[in-house]
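Hey team,

Filing this mostly as a record. A colleague (T.K.) asked me to run one chain through the structure pipeline before their review meeting, and I want the input and output archived in the tracker in case anyone asks later how it was produced. No errors, nothing strange. Just documentation.

Input sequence:
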Amino acid sequence: MRRFDATRIFYGMEFFDTLGAQAAFTVWAVYLVQDVGVNPLQLVLLGTVSEIAIFLFEVPTGVVADTRGRRYSFLLGAFTLLVSTLLYLLMWSIEAPFWGWAIASALLGLGFTFFSGATQAWLVDALHASDFSGDLEAVFARAQV
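Output structure:
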């Protein structure tokens, strides 16, 4: 029987997560420009707001995964992404000002950080449970590549 390999599962999760996120962001950008009327500068600013939210919330959401559990963090991320998506629909239906779109973008970034904290914490636990003798930093670096 083949031994459990958490790194392969993690690499697969990261690959499909990145693929899905990039496809979604591409559609998101076209949608904002074509349907909402966001200009290119505003589009860059919305992306920046989302990335700043990811930067600011990465550590606190990792703490949530460590203290409350990986499942809780994952479900909280799913809920946050659902709320931010619904907020996008609301912003579109009421023809909201730019700051409304910025709030929705920040919530979107927050939702993604709950996922990353949960999956990274899961990997560390799984590698420790399987007596992994390699370097954790190398695993995370390879996943980023």
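Quick notes for T.K.: The helical segments are 6-36, 40-68, 70-93, 98-129, 136-144. The first helix runs from residue 6 to 36.
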